[in-house]
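Hey, resending since the last one bounced:
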Amino acid sequence: MANVDSPFGFRYFGRQEGGSPTAGLTPRNIASTYGTGIFQGDPIISMASGYIQAATSNTVTVGGVFNGVEYLNSNVGRKIWFNSWPASGAGGNGQGYLSNDPQALFLAQSNGSPIVFADIGMNIGFATGSGNTTTGISAYSLDQSTIGTTNTLPFRIVGLWSQYAPPGSAGADDANDFNWAVVALNNTDRTSTTGV
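The structure tokens again:
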């Protein structure tokens, strides 16, 4: 089955073996004045102000992967939970929830050329995308062109989806563009010794 170019951000996949289970999400605040959407599956960064924003560069330390938000929606007049933070319409600061466990694994799609078995153990960056405002799901993907040993890249390739998926599954064709890989957080707030 050929892969389809349909990125979905960084989807939680489980945890690496060897550690105690940690299933919780970390709450972090989003400033009401932040006018850019953050979608479920987007990598985020911590700002010096204490708030979070969507990550747009592979040269910064990521704070985790966005999983959803609770905020006062001024359009409906009440607090709601949704997969994404809106670019407008928030009546106050949002409470975002992050997956930032250093042992967490994520599934994501290559933005072009296939990620191959020999890439396992290498580091990789992401490519940004405009998320779906109806579903709140991210359109970020793995930037295959960044694969290398650079220690500041935000993710580490730990496997290919084809190693886990039933035959013929979407994203499991490792010979063609847009295949899926399993990645772990690499350069994050929780593992970096440098402050924000």
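The chain is about 0% helix and 35% strand.

Sorry for the duplicate.
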